[in-house]
Amino acid sequence: MLRLLDRVLTVVCLAAAALVLVLLFAGPSLIDAKKKQMPAGKAAPPGAEVFASAGCGSCHTLKAAGKSGAVGPNLDQVRPDAATVTKIVRSGRGAMPSFAGKLSSAQIAAVATYVSSVAGR
Amino acid sequence: MGASESTEGLPRRDSAAGRLLLAGLLGAAVALTLGVYGTTHDPASDLAITLGFTTTITMKVWLATIAVGFAVVQMLSALWMYGRLPLGGAPSWLGSVHRISGRLAFLVSLPVAYHCLYQLAFQHSSARVLAHSILGCAFYGAFAAKVVVVRSRNLPGIALPIAGGLTFALLVAIWVTSGLWYIDKSGFPSA
After folding, report:
1. B128, closest residue in chain A (CA to CA)
2. How many Cβ atoms sit within 10 Å of the Cβ of residue A26?
């Protein structure tokens, strides 16, 4: 029984490792193809660019930015005001690190304005 | 007789050295590949998975902790098989338990590694994050090297315990710099 389970697990491990490799290497191409199909819109506001370049969407969901990160709080549900975003981005909270060394004050202000204006809409 | 043993032993030693070199090179290649991928890949949340957990971070904390649990079982069973535990002789089923626990630890680590690499990539925003990124790449390199060592015969007796111990230590270090850190900061997340 244990030997059978051992053999089955060997196959499952190999298949799972192969699947992860496929997702890692083919994933970006799939996403690029999806993005190319989307119609070109207006130029993004500065806060949106900061949101994208700082990788906020890797952890947070924000529908307006087309992001669905599930690591941190869902910004569309929390709908934080600009002051709250500024404070958390500057100082960090819980598992979220401070971005004070990565973003300038102007960038933090831009992303705070952007998030507070589009979250939940 | 002695001369004969020495001439017969030479190719065997060369072969063992070759396999150890292969294990080391493969491990380094795997770790380097993951590091290069993590450095060049733009973090993306588009292909996020939660496997039924409420959030990605919850899934990662749970699975990483479960992986460490299986790794502890594998380490203890190895110590028992090597006669390092005061439990008498190892039962016949222990080898299977050892292998199964190792495979399960590897299996449950994969969704965590996928998310780390795809969603967050290689980061260096703090010493902890940098250490975690490096340890994550090194773990799969050590795992690949251990697989080669396990599958090889006539290697020095110390090779497998070193490879296994290193893999175990790296997995625990990864968990300490992520799962345990998160639990310490925010408490254990409910599934």
Report:
1. A97
2. 11
Q: Tell me if A2 and B96 make a contact (CB, 8 A cut-off).
A: yes
Highest mean pLDDT out of A50-59, B8-17, B21-30, B37-46 = B21-30
Using a CB-CB distance cutoff of 8 angstroms, which residues of chain A are in contact with residue B91? none
Q: List the one residue out of B48, B73, B53 whose CA is nearest residue B63.
A: B53
Which residue in A6, A59, A95 is closest to B182 by CB distance?
A95
Whole-model pTM over 0.80: no
Give how far B183 is from chain A: nearest CA, Å.
10
The rounded distance, in Å, linking the Cα atoms of B48 and B65 is 20
